[in-house]
Request: fold
Amino acid sequence: DHGVSSSLFQNPAKLHLTLGTLVLLNEQEIQKACDLLQRCKEDFVDQITGGKPLTVEVAGVEYMNDDPAMTDVLYAKVHMKDGSDRLQVMADQLVERFVASGLMLKEWDRVKLHATVMNTVFRKDPSAEERNSTMTGKSSFKERESFNGRNILKLFEHFYFGEVQLDSVRLSQRFSSDASGYYATSGQLTFS
Reply:
């Protein structure tokens, strides 16, 4: 389909649920975020999780914008296997705490639980390297090229990806990797 290429897919080692984005500019801010994460664990996360991993099901796909023929982000839908809203409640409370601390800007009323599968910001641009070498000092920003997601949405509307045990919340560093291939982690809280 128009605009679809293999470079749009998320690296499987980096699949995750994003609760929110932080801009941490120095070690003190990273430490503040780590400390806040631990306080959240004590204040409400342990109570919500019961000290055990949360079993979530990943099933079906959805897109972020208004027109499926012009998709930029396609994601897998995530919900608790037991039908409860514990993951949503925990995610919303974590974001609320980080917003109240000043470490995060409030963007939405609630966290959209999703796992990004395809994203046009991942698109590899074969001309980018050439442009970067010839336009030294100039921005090489390129407009996102959307893809037609209508057939993918039809084919995978109810696709069952499986279930997973969520056992931690991590402060992951964008544009990084650790030895496992996942993002480098600045801090984390574990449920068990």
Q: What stands out?
A: The radius of gyration is 18 Å. The chain has one domain: 6-126+144-187.
